[in-house]
Design brief:
- By secondary structure, the chain is of the alpha/beta class.
- The chain has 13 helices and 12 strands.
- It has an 8-stranded mixed beta sheet with strand order 6-7-8-3-9-10-12-11, with helices on both faces. It has a 4-stranded antiparallel beta sheet with strand order 2-1-4-5, covered by helices on one side.
- Helix 6 crosses helix 7, helix 6 runs parallel beside helix 9 and helix 9 packs parallel to helix 10.
- The longest helix is centred in the middle third of the chain and has 18 residues.
- The two termini are 15 Å apart.
- The N terminus and C terminus are likely disordered.
Length: 355
């Protein structure tokens, strides 16, 4: 039940997994207090500021927020692919009972592409132009499953069939430049699902595609999740996509998780002012075309000198003194719904009640 909550009310938990009933023991992936910084000549960029969330098996989770909020960096940190001058300073990333941050690089290579796979934004960047599609998918399979010869070739074609690729035998012999953007993206997805991973991380997988191809790729990701029984972490700034295929949503702002909720509840009753403003900025079906869309005031902060306490408070229309002096913890709003906000919980969409 929602209502006003005083600032002195007991905090349910600082960790999203406990409120959702997942926790490390029940979760496929459990990220706890993840901090990643970049050490530059200008100063230390405090990019991830203690990120915590969970993903259960066969669950589709959307990770959303403005450009620069840390969505992609969160995924790269989970995969241990952060390059210099970036460095993971603190936290735990538990996957299938192992803390990935404590594994050797050789142990991580056995997990990447096998148990956890990542689909990147631009297939032109991640497909090698001088090798055929079959060679590139086959390399992933042979690395983790030691298949060779005809058996490997058959598995490559089967994987292209799985991602609904037309004429997969021909495509396996072709080079990336001979394929359309949508077909190249399907090839990246094929590389990701080739070893039946338990978790697929899709980082803006439809950014460079036209609308009709976007729809087909998103439908494919949803179907593959059901067929393989794996989980999906979808990184996107498109809330419409999240509403269509995700079970839960995690909202990030400036390196912090500010809200985590079942998808329907987030859209009906957002509990953080930032989420509320994001939803207000989404075009509505019956909106007057001449009407100007609302925008979030201000701009994303400089993370070399981030705002104190709640990083959103300089842009928040409801900010109070405590927001600049004390960082809010993720607190239970309802069963499975958490928000990191000191002062209020909305009894209904767009109606904020001060504590």
């Amino acid at each position: 039940m929602r209502g006003s909550m005083s600032r002195d009310a007991p905090v349910a938990t600082a960790h999203a997994g406990e409120a959702t009933g997942s926790g490390r023991g029940q979760s496929l992936l459990s990220v706890e207090n993840l901090r990643t910084h970049f050490f530059t000549y200008q100063g230390v960029v405090q990019a991830l500021n203690g990120v915590s969330f969970d993903i259960r098996g066969n669950e589709a989770v959307g990770l959303v927020g403005e450009t620069g909020c840390g969505k992609s960096l969160t995924a790269l940190s989970v995969m241990r692919l952060v390059e210099e001058p970036g460095r993971i300073l603190d936290g735990e990333v538990w996957f299938e009972g192992k803390d990935l941050l404590q594994l050797t690089e050789a142990e991580m290579r056995r997990i990447r592409g096998n148990r956890i796979a990542m689909i990147f934004q631009d297939p032109s960047t991640y497909l090698n132009p001088v090798f055929t599609i079959g060679n590139q998918i086959g390399e992933v399979i042979s690395l983790h499953q030691r298949l060779r010869g005809k058996e490997l070739n058959r598995r490559v074609v089967d994987t292209l069939h799985m991602v609904r690729m037309p004429d997969p035998e021909r495509v396996a012999r072709q080079y990336p430049h001979q394929l359309s953007g949508g077909m190249r993206q399907r090839c990246l997805i094929a590389m990701a699902v080739a070893c039946n991973p338990k978790l697929i991380i899709a980082d803006e997988p439809t950014t460079a595609l036209d609308v009709t191809v976007q729809a087909a790729i998103l439908l494919l990701l949803g179907e593959l999740r059901q067929e393989t029984g794996g989980a999906l972490l979808l990184i996107t700034h498109n809330l419409g996509i999240v509403a269509e295929i995700c079970d839960r949503v995690i909202v990030m702002y400036s390196g912090d998780v500010v809200e985590a909720s079942p998808t329907r509840e987030l859209f009906v009753s957002p509990a953080h002012p930032y989420t509320n403003l994001l939803l207000d900025a989404v075009p509505k079906l019956h909106q007057d075309p001449s009407e100007r869309l609302p925008s979030i005031p201000g701009s994303v902060p400089n993370l070399i000198h981030p705002p104190s306490a709640c990083r959103f408070h300089p842009r928040c229309p409801h900010a109070r003194e405590v927001c600049a002096t004390e960082k809010p913890l993720l607190q239970a709003v309802s069963d499975g719904h958490m928000a990191a906000c000191h002062l209020w919980y909305p009894p209904r969409r767009g109606s904020w009640e001060a504590a």
